[in-house]
Amino acid sequence: MALTHATQAPERPFKLSFEFFPPKSTDMEGQLWATVDDLASWGPEFVSVTYGAGGTTREPTLETVRRLIATTPLATASHLTCVSATREEVAQVVEEFKAVGVRHFVALRGDPPQGLGAAYEPHPGGFENAAALVKGLKDMGDFEISVSAYPEKHPESADLSVDLDMLKRKVDNGATRALTQFFFDNDVYERYLEAVHRAGISIPIVPGIMPILNLTQLKRFAGMCGASVPSWLDERFAGLDDQPAARAEVAAKVAAEQIADLMKRGVEEFHLYTMNRAPLVNATLENLGLGRVDEATQKQNFASA
Ligand code: FAD
Question: Mean pLDDT over residues 249-272, rounded?
Answer without folding.
Answer: 97
